[in-house]
Predict the 3D structure of the following.
Amino acid sequence: MDISACPYHSKLSKEFKPFDLTDPFPVYKKAREEEPIFFSEELGYWVVTRYADIKEIFGNWQVFTSENAQTPPKPVPDSVRKIMVEGGIVGLSGLSGRIPPDHTRIRRIVTMAFTPKRLRKLEPDIRALAIEMIEKFEQNNHAELVKELVYDLPAFVIFMLLGVPKEEVTQVKAWAISRMMLTFSETTEEEQLFHANQVVKYWQYCKDMVTRRKEQLGDDFPSDLVRLQQEGYEINDQEIAAMCYNQLFAGHETTTSLMGNGIRELLKYRENWEKLCANPALIPGAIEEILRFNPSVITWRRRAAEEATVGGVTFPKGANLLLIMGSGNRDESVFPNGETLDIERTNAKEHLSFGSGIHYCLGAPLAKLEFKIVLEELTKRFPQLQLKPNQTFEFAFNTSFRAPIALEVEW
């Protein structure tokens, strides 16, 4: 099918609501069955929903570049772009928006700093922090878990990794939210102006962080990158700051979403919670299945650098693509009974929730470690945990990050 001639006849374009993530899965299923690649008139993106097609696109970085991964889904007004350009935000990327050879060079250096040894060193502190937060509500017989646990815990962990003082956490978290709203949501020009100014402050903070580490090294991730730079590895100050800029965002927002989604799904299908309480050894596999069934990052983007054909559809050069990992992860051709949460599923690890290929998420082990610790502590302390009845779950209005804004539980 040649889509360059007349791409606006998709039956699913009107049904697909790219910013409303309340319950997108029925439309995803319909797309896989009826029109697995279709054009969204609202976004101006081609939407890809099948597992094989998404994996093929992720695997071909030469043709399907990541240069639009951090681009707002709709063109920003000139007034907003001016703030971003003057603030040094346009074209800024850590790894997700880079391609080789820069991507290969920087990822190799970052991998040398983001090591299993550093994660193991963090584990006791993560557990102590989780226990401290849980003990604050343990005697209450109820909690709002987003507010009281899963919103702040990943932020404290990633800020610990990056050496952000506790007194600065609230401000940095607020800047990170502005970045999400500017990059992945649909907002008014007035809102975009506010978020753009916030993001500029966020970027300046990251640059200042590198400057401070060059004056005095510490025991944290940016210090490790500065040390490698001083040892002769090819990474400049701007690139180190960009890694901090991205980690301070991706390292906690996505993990907050993973935990919120995961606990909700385990309690919604409560036999799975009971299995984990009875056998904690199932927790690592359950996390993989949660990542498959309800990922925190539900979509990602690519752009066709040249004309290319995938799944029988020919994309013209310059076409923007929205890859629906939340759909591919339920593809029945890969995951039998894909619409069912099964924490003992044997191939759950084949999910696409951390991407695939050269841009596979570096932070995946940390996110899974944090969630493992939280589930171990919650299942041990609250075997009777259940969702508070009759609550309505709301989700932030954006294209990519899906998690409940609040999660009321009781025991």
Summary: Residues 25-410 form a domain with the Cytochrome p450 fold (CATH 1.10.630.10). The beta strands are 37-40, 45-48, 64-65, 142-144, 300-304, 308-310, 313-315, 320-323, 386-387, 408-410.
